[in-house]
Every structure is written in structure tokens, then in C-alpha cells.
Design goal:
The complex is a heterodimer of chains A (418) and B (582). With 418 residues, chain A is an alpha/beta fold. In chain A, 41% of the residues lie in helices and 13% in strands. By secondary structure, chain B is of the alpha/beta class. Chain B has a five-stranded mixed beta sheet, sandwiched between helices. In chain B, strands 11-10-13-16 form a four-stranded parallel beta sheet, with helices on both faces. The N and C termini of chain B lie far apart (58 Å). The chains are: A alpha/beta (418), B alpha/beta (582).
Chain lengths: 418, 582
């Protein structure tokens, strides 16, 4: 376990998350105090220096996002914490929400102060409803102690946080869909423009950040950006909470420095493959992420290194599949997920999934037709290029990448490696 | 507004900032394929057929929802674009009932046209359609979910324009459907049968209930005396179905075609529109002078009646008790006309040609009976009439003009303008003013109540009274005026409401592609008809006056009440069809 680190997760199990006094006793709200003494521009400069990429999956630079949100005119803005952690094989936000909710609230206050927001919303995944009392308690106690609400710490800055849940739709993790859901509408993505940074929740300028992103912000302001960038590699500094699951001996959420190889993650942190089987396929970033084969297991876990081999960090999920599973069965499980979770609004995603699912079913049964693979690939590419939102664009990432890595399992004669 | 220089398919052009790629492409004669885009509606970008390549972007870009920027370079016709567009079309088609030859929209379907354009002949996809059951149990509309392409146009028409909020989305992913809540049939919802959904549907997923066979059967039945009336708005729209310029006035050809189809007498609903003005105008005078319920609201639009009966039934006393012109005609056809022609009312088969799908329901209301028989036996929309004419092999455009028959053949300009929003109001004012003042009007044109603005108002001094009037078209606009009445804040004496945007010329039964621009042309044509007529005031219609002399007595008299007036009901969630004639 020595390869894991403890920066974002430093408070885990160090205090009683139901008690603000317990949080204060370990230095809680230091970050808020420091940040609120700075100007918005100073905060943005520090955030830019940390070069934290958004941890929901899109990997957009947080400092830039805050700078843009701050520059949008308007005296009533909104900060949303996206806690709709719906990506299969992703549960790192749950660890923050359940073990360190105050750090998240601090991150929201800092973000709100930076961009000039009056209200914050936590959009909590419906399946995490058991965490509602904990989060509500944290909000309530923070208000009572003056860390939230009117005139925070006498600075004149006022900020309220509201807790919301949807009805359990994966697509509500997409920023504009999440906003529709808070507004009480059914979960379908909004047309852009207008962009949500200018016209989001209740038509107000809106900043959406992931739970982990906000927790990192708190940690950085508590300890200084220098402490954060000591971790990782020069090109990809910092740490990341990963969700390791599947056929590994020790699944779980772990904080790692960027730059460990996938082998180190799977074998050293994860303890290797269950029953000591061989690694066959892994998928990074949840169901919408691409898959890789065992030959890529020595790739360092950084944005750039993974990008070179056509993989993404995405949500930070690492799903490990061993040699007892057929690739097509794995793909079928992903396809079942998207058939269930597509919102149905746009043609490529609704109809593309319908048709590709039929083809995958034939592959599972071994009754596929000669042109089935070509057809599936053709429509998977149409989904990738033409769908309305990120869900449809990425729903076939697993299929397309699996065909690349395991052509023989789709009846293609092995192509010489390019 | 700032101009933006862009390139589409290597053609340089300058368009104003805020133009979409789709609109910009039109300016250089490039028609980017689309299904969900509609010029009068919000941008939806859900069909994805309009994807194009924009330099600098890896993914394709939806042309309907992307705005131009300085230096933008767009390619609409590359191999990649065409392959993707064609693929999306194949996807739509694979889950679409392809029984085109039996579809009401065959030959007039946007999906069919696109398939032709992309030369879709063979696809590797399985054609098996997942759909909800057919909804065809109401008198006005048929919804076939097997044909639905989920473009969302009908939902917008129902929710945003009409604010009826019946059509909505249900479920998600492959079960995503457009339907009323809980997938109820339309008659078990607050649907008003206005048919605006059917007017914007790009395919045959929502169409008028076809009654042409009923009418053919009656025409071929030697025991029936089949007569027909034609509403004011039909004559300025029917030409669309025969590729005439929008807003063409085809009254003469239309009468000639009806005669060829085999109707024994061809009458003009403009006649009973004039009659409506005399009854309704006198009702207004009566209410104003005797302290009756004000504001009085018109009652000619059956979609509107369905709306107020369903949603605002506490305001039913504000409605004029006059039947609509269609039903006044129907009542007279089974009474006065029967006597004059020496026929039994039951042997007369009265057909209406209407721009409207709600009229089909109105004709079947149980109270719409005279002398024990249904007043109007069958209602055809403009679209259905066009189909009958085509079916009979009549070369419509070349027909020699014919004239309406007596005794219901004369309509004044006041009756003609019933077809446009504000027309009933203007017609009523022309008559009420002269009846009350005994003086001629300085100008017959009340321009304040004309045009496509959602709510229009005017004040007219009649003797010592400032008569305040308002006109709303589209039920969303009507709601605004109803809310004023609810709060006791309505300043008006008289309100005209038409369910459909633009009035009857924009009715749900009019030829497909009744865009705002087309509605504008039809309205111009309607006022042209009025302008060109020698008689422009309802109380100057000699045949209407003769009808009172010979038969009715006086407006609001006993006979009038019996034949020309009705009463309204509270309607819960369900229409009661068990009481309706089938």
C-alpha cells in the first residue's frame, strides 16, 4: 500500500464527519480563511498554478474554468457540485462525501467566493441517499458556526448551499442535464449555446465542478500549491483518487500520485488479479471510457501517457477484467448499461444503441452475420461523431477500442500490429 | 448587427452575427437535410441529420444549432458528412413503419423526401419497429407512434404555442416516446383537438382522422341529398395542395371541384358567419345594456371551446351562447333548408370543409342536433378535400370558376374575414356600431385587431360608451386574457379567441407547411377578398335578412335560440364518447 498517498484524502478517518468541532480540531476551515483573505484573481492564479484538470471526466483545467466563470458578468451566480457519480466502476467521490464532507463544503465556498456566486447546489447521486443526513448536518453546522450562510467569517461574503438529488439517471451527470434535473425537468441535455457558464441553473451563470476537484481546491488552499505539485510527474503534477474494481484482490478508492504505471496500480495497490488469473482487459474512466489490453499495462497513469495509447483517465475508474471473461460478454454488459441510460432524445444515441445492441447480442450467441461487425462499427462512429451529448459520443468507446485490441474475438483475422 | 464572413462549400458569404449554419447555407442555395428543425419553432438539434464539417472541429457540427463565427469554414457535402447523414437517416428509417403507400403523408412526407434525396435503397439494419399502440379512438386525430421520428415538433406546438401540455416525452432510450402522460389516448387527456401537432409533424405520425370514405359513400348513396359548406379559411389555403403560390384565392375553382365531386349544393359558411355576427352582435348589445356577464367571448372555435370547458370551466358564462358558423349552417340545413327543398331532414347529408380538426369533434357533440338528426354529418379538413379532388382526377388548377348556390351562397366581406385572427371582432364591430349608432362607419377597417401579434386590443367609441375589445389567437395567448378575467381585472367588453395561431387560416387541418410566412400570405388574401366584395357588413347580407324575414324572426328570437344557440359543459379529464354519435 506504500504507493498510495494522502493529500486529498488526508482527513479520511482522522475526524468524525458528523461533527464540525471534530473537523475544526484537525485544522478545518483553514483553507476557507486563507482563501477569503485573498482576491478572486489571486485565487485563480493559484488554481492555474496547480493545473488541476476537472475530475468528473472531461479534464478541463479548473483554473481556466474558474477564471471564465469569474469574468461572466452577473451578480447572482451559481456553483454546482456534481456529486452524481454515475459512471460504473467509479466511487471515489463517495469516499470524499462520506469521510470528509466539510472539505467539499469548503471547496464550494472558495469556488463561490472566487466566481462571485451566492448559491451552491450539491447534486447528489440518488443512490447515495444514505449520505443525505451527513451532508445536511455538515451544511447546518457550518451555518451555525459562521462558515456558511450570511456574511461568512465577517468578510461580507454570503453563500448558501442546497442539497438536491435526481431520480437516478446516469445522464444527469452531464452538466446541462443535471441543471434540467434540479429545475424539476426530465433528465435530457440542453442545447448549447447558451453555455451554462453564462446561462445555467435558473438562467443564472453557473459553474459546475466535480466533488474531487472541489476537495483538491480545499487541500491546496490549506497546504499551499507547492505541497500539491510535489506529487506526480513534472508534466502531470499532483494526485488523483482512483476507483479500482473488477477482478482485483483489493478493490477500493485509493489516492495515488500521477505517474504510477497501471501495473503498479493493479498489482501493487490492487494486490493482483483474483485467483491469480491473467489480466485480459481493463477499462479506464467508467463505462464511457476506452478499453486496453494487457500489453498496455506498463503505461504510466498520466493524462499525456494514456492519451498516447488512446486511453483516458476520465472519472478515474479502473475496471480490471481477467481471462475468464469473453470480451464480447464484457462489451454486452456495457451495451446493456447504455441501452438503459441513454435519454433517447437524439437519433444517433437512441437508434444507434438499439441497432448495435442487436448486433452485439448476435455476437454473444455466435449467430452474427458477415456484415455485422462493419455495420456496428459504422454506426458506432456515427454515434461518436454526431450524438447530442457526451453520453452518446462515448457510449461506443468500449466497443470500438475492444475491436482494436481484440480483433480475433470479433472474428477478424489478426491484423499485424501497426 | 455585426456581419460575419464565412465560407460554405468554398462559397464566400457574409451573414449577420447570430445566423445559424443552416440558415446561412440556405442563402447560397444549399439545403442542409433536417427533420426536427422548423422555421417557426425553437432549435432542437435532436434529429442530428444536419451535421456538417466545420474546419478546426474534430466532431461533426449540427448546422441547425451552431452559429456562424468570423472566418468559419463549413463543408456540407464531403464524403464523411454524407456518410454520417445517410447513416442517421438509415437509423431513423429502421425504426419507422415503412408502409409509405398506405400513409396519409405519402408524397408529402419530409422523411420520404430525404430518403429519396439520399437514394436509400438498401440498409444492413433490421427493420423492426418498437412502438406504442395506435391512438385512433377520438373523432379528430390519429397518432401512430410507429411512424414517429421523435423530432419534438408536436410537443413544442402543444406545450409552447398552445400551452395545452398534453403531448410530452415518456420513458428514455429505446423506449423514448412522444405521448400524453401515462400514454393515455387523446380523449382521456385535456387535448383540445386543435391539430396543431398534426400541422407540424414532418411525417405521418399525427394526422387528421380521415373521413373521406364516409363522404364518398354518402355521395354514391342515391337516397341521400348531399350538400356541402366551405369555411372562409379554406379558399385561401387549398391552392397550396396544388402547388399554387401561397395565399392564392381559389374560391371559384374550389366550388367547381366540389360540384364535380358530386355534391348537390355547394354553400358558403361565410353566409352563416354573417348570421353569427347578427346573433352574437345582438347578444353583446344585450349583455352590455342589461348588465349581463362581461367580457363576452366568442365561441366559433371548437378547439377553444374544448379548452375553456376543460381548463377554465368557471368562466363558461363569459362565452357567447352562439353556435359556431359550421353548426348554425348544420342546424339550418336540417330545418329551413329541408323545408324549402321539400326534403326530410334525415335524408340530407351535410358535409363541412373546414381548416380544422376540432370541428370533427364539434359536429359529433350530442347537443348539436336539430329535428332529431345530427346537424353536420361529416367534416373534412382542407387536406382531406385536396385528397378527394386528387382522387377524382380533377385538374384543379385549370378549372373554370363556379359560384356558390342559393340560399346560402352570399357571404359578405365581414363573413370572409372570420378566417383570420381578429376577423370576427372586426365583423362584429362593423355591425354593432351601425346598429347602435344608426350611422355609417367612417372606415370599415379596424386595423388594430388585424395581424399576427399574439394579443391585440382596441377601443371604439359607440355613442357614449368606450367599447374595449381584445383578440387572442393561440391558446397560450387566450390564457393571458382568461387570467385577467379570473382576477376581475379584465377591462374588456368583448374578446375574440381563436384556438389556432393566426386564426382559422392557421388551422390544424390546413395544408402541411403552414409556416408563419404562409399564414401571413393567407391573411393578406382574406382581407383582399373582403376588400373586393361589394357587401362588407353582415347586416347588409340580403339573404341573411331574408332568412330572418321568412323564418327566424329576429336575432335572439325564439327560433334563433332553438337553432342557433347552445350551451356548454364542464369537462373533466375525459371526453364522453359513449354519448357521441358514431
Amino acid at each position: 500500500m506504500s504507493k498510495t498517498v494522502s493529500f486529498i484524502t488526508e482527513n479520511f478517518d482522522k475526524y468524525d464527519p458528523t461533527s464540525i468541532d471534530s473537523y475544526l480540531s484537525i485544522g478545518g476551515f483553514t483553507a476557507t480563511k486563507k482563501a477569503l483573505a485573498m482576491s478572486s484573481n489571486e485565487i485563480i492564479d493559484i488554481a492555474k498554478k496547480a493545473s488541476v484538470k476537472g475530475r468528473g471526466g472531461a479534464a478541463y483545467d479548473t483554473g481556466r474554468k474558474w477564471a471564465q466563470a469569474a469574468s461572466v458578468p452577473g451578480d447572482d451566480k451559481v456553483v454546482i457540485c456534481n456529486a452524481d457519480e454515475g459512471e460504473p466502476c467509479t466511487f471515489k467521490d463517495r469516499s470524499v462525501l462520506s469521510k470528509d464532507p466539510f472539505r467539499l463544503l469548503e471547496g464550494m465556498v472558495i469556488a463561490g467566493y472566487t466566481v462571485g456566486a451566492k448559491n451552491g447546489y450539491i447534486y447528489l447521486r440518488e443512490e447515495y441517499r444514505h449520505l443525505k443526513p451527513l451532508i445536511k448536518g455538515a451544511i447546518q453546522q457550518s451555518i451555525e458556526k459562521g462558515y456558511l450562510g450570511d456574511n461568512i467569517l465577517g468578510t461580507g461574503f454570503s453563500f448558501n448551499i442546497h442539497l438536491y438529488s435526481g431520480a437516478g439517471a446516469y445522464v444527469c451527470g452531464e452538466g446541462s442535464t443535471l441543471i434540467e434535473s434540479i429545475e424539476g425537468k426530465s433528465g435530457r441535455p440542453r442545447i448549447k449555446p447558451p453555455f451554462i457558464k453564462e446561462c445555467g441553473l435558473f438562467q443564472l451563470p453557473t459553474l459546475v465542478n466535480n466533488v474531487e476537484t472541489l476537495a483538491i481546491a480545499t487541500a491546496i488552499f490549506q497546504h499551499g500549491v507547492e505541497e500539491y505539485v510535489k506529487y506526480g510527474t513534472p508534466e502531470c503534477p499532483g494526485t488523483k483518487i482512483i476507483s479500482l474494481a473488477g477482478n482485483v484482490k483489493n478493490p477500493g478508492a485509493y489516492e495515488i500520485p500521477f505517474g504510477l504505471t497501471l501495473r503498479e496500480i493493479i498489482y501493487d495497490i490492487g494486490g493482483g488479479i483474483t485467483d491469480d488469473h491473467d489480466l485480459k482487459i481493463f477499462q479506464l474512466g467508467g463505462a464511457s471510457g476506452r478499453t486496453g489490453s494487457a500489453s498496455l499495462v506498463d503505461t504510466p497513469y498520466t493524462y499525456d501517457d494514456l492519451h498516447k495509447v488512446n486511453l483516458v483517465i476520465g472519472s478515474g475508474g479502473i475496471l480490471v477484467v481477467d481471462d475468464r471473461t469473453r470480451v464480447i460478454d464484457f462489451i454486452k454488459s456495457i451495451q446493456d448499461f447504455f441501452i438503459h441510460e441513454s435519454c433517447g432524445k437524439c437519433t444517433p444515441c437512441r437508434e444507434g444503441n438499439r441497432q448495435i445492441a442487436r448486433i452485439i447480442d448476435r455476437f454473444v450467441d455466435g449467430t452474427q452475420k458477415d456484415d455485422d461487425l462493419d455495420t456496428a462499427m459504422r454506426f458506432a462512429n456515427i454515434m461518436k461523431n454526431c450524438a447530442f451529448c457526451g453520453l452518446g459520443e462515448t457510449a461506443q468507446s468500449s466497443l470500438l477500442s475492444a475491436i482494436d485490441h481484440f480483433p480475433e474475438e470479433f472474428g477478424l483475422t489478426e491484423v499485424a500490429s501497426k | 448587427m455585426k456581419n460575419t464572413k464565412i465560407k460554405i462549400d468554398n462559397i464566400d458569404l457574409i451573414v449577420p452575427e447570430g445566423t445559424t449554419i443552416l440558415e446561412a447555407a440556405k442563402k447560397v442555395n444549399i439545403n442542409i437535410p433536417h427533420l426536427c428543425y422548423h422555421p417557426d419553432q425553437a432549435i432542437k438539434a435532436n434529429c442530428r441529420l444536419c451535421v456538417v464539417e466545420v474546419a478546426g472541429s474534430k466532431k461533426l457540427t449540427a448546422a441547425c444549432s451552431s452559429y456562424v463565427f468570423e472566418g468559419m469554414e463549413v463543408q456540407t457535402n464531403t464524403k464523411r458528412v454524407r456518410d454520417m447523414q445517410k447513416g442517421i437517416l438509415e437509423l431513423i428509417l429502421a425504426n419507422h413503419d415503412q408502409n409509405c403507400l398506405k400513409c396519409a403523408r405519402n408524397g408529402n412526407c419530409e422523411l420520404q423526401a430525404l430518403c429519396q434525396r439520399f437514394n436509400i435503397s438498401k440498409t444492413n439494419l433490421e427493420d423492426s419497429v418498437d412502438s406504442l399502440p395506435l391512438d385512433n379512438t377520438n373523432p379528430s386525430l390519429v397518432r401512430d407512434s410507429a411512424k414517429c421520428v421523435k423530432c419534438d415538433r408536436c410537443v413544442e406546438a402543444c406545450q409552447k404555442g398552445q400551452e395545452v401540455h398534453v403531448l410530452t416525452h415518456s420513458h428514455r432510450s429505446i423506449h423514448y416516446n412522444i405521448a400524453p402522460a401515462y400514454e393515455a389516448p387523446l380523449e382521456e387527456t385535456f387535448c383540445v383537438f386543435c391539430g396543431q401537432c398534426s400541422a407540424v409533424c414532418p411525417v405521418g405520425a399525427i394526422v387528421e382522422k380521415d373521413d373521406t370514405q364516409k363522404v364518398w359513400d354518402a355521395i354514391y348513396d342515391s337516397k341521400k341529398h348531399v350538400i356541402v359548406q366551405v369555411a372562409p379559411a379554406v379558399r385561401v389555403a387549398l391552392g397550396d395542395a396544388f402547388n399554387l403560390p401561397k395565399g392564392s384565392i381559389v374560391t371559384g375553382q374550389m366550388v367547381a371541384a366540389l360540384r364535380r365531386l358530386g355534391f348537390e349544393k355547394i354553400f358558403d359558411t361565410n353566409f352563416t358567419a354573417d348570421l353569427t355576427i347578427l346573433e352574437e352582435g345582438n347578444e353583446l348589445i344585450h349583455r352590455v345594456t342589461t348588465g349581463g356577464v362581461l367580457p363576452m367571448i366568442t365561441s366559433c372555435s371548437p378547439g377553444w371551446i374544448n379548452f375553456i370547458e376543460g381548463r377554465y370551466d368557471h368562466l363558461l358564462d363569459n362565452l357567447s351562447s352562439c353556435k359556431s358558423p359550421q353548426q348554425m349552417f348544420g342546424a339550418l340545413s336540417k330545418s329551413y333548408y329541408a323545408e324549402k327543398a321539400g326534403l326530410e331532414p334525415k335524408d340530407i347529408y351535410t358535409v363541412s370543409i373546414m381548416p380544422c380538426t376540432a370541428k370533427k369533434y364539434e359536429a359529433q357533440r350530442p347537443e348539436m342536433k336539430t329535428n332529431g338528426v345530427q346537424e353536420v354529418d361529416a367534416v373534412l379538413t382542407t387536406r382531406e378535400l385536396a385528397r378527394m379532388i386528387q382522387s377524382a382526377g380533377i385538374d384543379f388548377v385549370g378549372l373554370e370558376e363556379d359560384q356558390f348556390d342559393n340560399p346560402f351562397g352570399i357571404g359578405t366581406g365581414a363573413g370572409a374575414i372570420f378566417g383570420a385572427t381578429g376577423g370576427v371582432m372586426e365583423a362584429a364591430l362593423r355591425t354593432v356600431y351601425e346598429v347602435l349608432t344608426g350611422k355609417g362607419l367612417p372606415s370599415l377597417n379596424f386595423v388594430d385587431v388585424r395581424g399576427l401579434q399574439g394579443i391585440k386590443e382596441a377601443t371604439i367609441k359607440i355613442n357614449d360608451l368606450d367599447v374595449k375589445v381584445a383578440v387572442a389567437h393561440g391558446l397560450g395567448n387566450a390564457k393571458v386574457l382568461l387570467k385577467q378575467i379570473e382576477k376581475g381585472e379584465s377591462p374588456y367588453h368583448f374578446i375574440e379567441v381563436m384556438a389556432c395561431p393566426g386564426g382559422c387560416i392557421g388551422g390544424g387541418g390546413q395544408p402541411i407547411k403552414s409556416t408563419l410566412a404562409v399564414k401571413g400570405k393567407r391573411i393578406e388574401a382574406i382581407y383582399q377578398i373582403d376588400q373586393d366584395l361589394p357587401l362588407r357588413k353582415s347586416h347588409k347580407n340580403p339573404d341573411v335578412m331574408r332568412l330572418y324575414d321568412e323564418y327566424l324572426g329576429e336575432p335572439l328570437g325564439h327560433k334563433s335560440h332553438e337553432l342557433l344557440h347552445t350551451h356548454y359543459h364542464t369537462r373533466g379529464m375525459k371526453y364522453n364518447f359513449s354519448e357521441l354519435n358514431k
